[in-house]
Amino acid sequence: MSALEAMRDRRSWSKVTDLAPTGPELEAFVAAAGRVADHKTLRPWRIIEIRGSDRDLLARALNKADGKKGYSSKPRRAPLIIALVADVSSKKIPAWEQEATASGVAHMLSLVLDEAGFGVFWRTDDNTRSKALAKAHGLRKGEVLLGWLYVGGKPPRTRPVRRKTVDAAKHISRLPGGKKRRKVDDARS
């Protein structure tokens, strides 16, 4: 599968099976995803692997962040949860750029997991930046939680998925005052 096909065919899998990548497989996927563009090669990101009963720690923290007792059911929806952490502590590069790099790693990771046959769903929460979730994830000073990749096996599809195609022309423009964008002009520029 080409990179273009992987991007074009990508979708979120809100329901997954109990199949998950092994530790060594995950390491290989993260090594590949870590090749994302990274100004000053800071590698301002890390991931936290959450499996098995560790999901209960996340479940409790999610409810605590919501001001509830007990356990959220969300972490039991996938056998592997990957917490995405951005380290924005460097003063050499703006914080937004460090978060963008970490987000790029997360997206590249979701693509390589998908290509390997795993279903992925990137989940965020209103409380992602809460103290309860920061504590549960052991975040250090300067780190922020971006969300989680829920990962599992792709269940069999009984019907084809209808995906809306992106009308790229609606999302591409030129600088104000520049030439009008024409497909012919841009074919070779």
From TrEMBL:
Pfam families: Nitroreductase. Its EC number is 1.-.-.-. One of its GO terms (molecular function) is oxidoreductase activity. FMN binds at residues 10-12, 35, 39, 122-124. Residues 8-152 form the Nitroreductase domain. Signal peptide: none annotated. Its cofactor is FMN. This is Putative NAD(P)H nitroreductase.
